[in-house]
């Protein structure tokens, strides 16, 4: 079996707002609408940059840029690996690291970075119930994340249990 080089890494937040186990618990997503394409919903996050000391540092930077938010209780939850070509040259894989975390604060007026400064389409912050019905109500991408979340609602919440650490 041939190994494929990792050409890109991302850090993404499965960002929960509210108390795990409560009916008020919400998943914070970004509804992306690009010209000529159907809308889709993504978790906040993005590429790990050379100046990021760790993948978790990249997560904090990206959440700050995209949401003007701070997160706490960052716990690794899921990894997705997909084929990826960098600048249409090097072929390899993109590894997406998904972390469950709690929303500590959010001020959308603090958003900054390329998504805000030079948007391609719209970035609308939305909250959906963190339930199977809530996840089914939007087109979460990547599809592997949607399948993981739908199958693991209780387990994802358990990653934020006060007695885990």
Automatic annotation (TrEMBL):
The keyword Transcription does not apply. Keywords: Hydrolase. Residues 7-153 form the Nudix hydrolase domain. PROSITE patterns: NUDIX. InterPro entries: NUDIX_hydrolase-like_dom_sf, NUDIX_hydrolase_dom. One of its GO terms (molecular function) is hydrolase activity. Its EC number is 3.6.-.-. The keyword RNA-binding does not apply. Belongs to the Nudix hydrolase family. This is NUDIX hydrolase. It comes from Streptomyces hesseae.
């Amino acid at each position: 079996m041939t190994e494929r080089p990792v050409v890109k890494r991302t850090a993404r937040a499965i960002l929960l707002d509210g108390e795990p186990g409560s009916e008020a618990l919400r998943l914070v997503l970004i509804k992306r609408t690009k010209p000529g394409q159907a809308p889709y919903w993504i978790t906040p996050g993005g590429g790990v940059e050379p100046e990021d000391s760790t993948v978790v540092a990249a997560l904090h930077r990206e959440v700050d840029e995209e949401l003007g938010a701070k997160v706490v209780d960052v716990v690794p939850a899921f990894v997705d690996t997909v084929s990826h070509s960098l600048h249409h040259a090097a072929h390899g894989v993109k590894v997406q690291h998904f972390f469950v975390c709690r929303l500590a604060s959010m001020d959308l007026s603090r958003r900054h970075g390329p998504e805000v400064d030079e948007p391609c389409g719209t970035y609308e912050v939305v909250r959906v119930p963190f339930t199977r019905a809530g996840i089914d109500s939007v087109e979460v991408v990547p599809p592997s994340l949607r399948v993981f979340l739908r199958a693991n609602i209780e387990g994802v919440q358990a990653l934020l249990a006060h007695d885990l650490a």
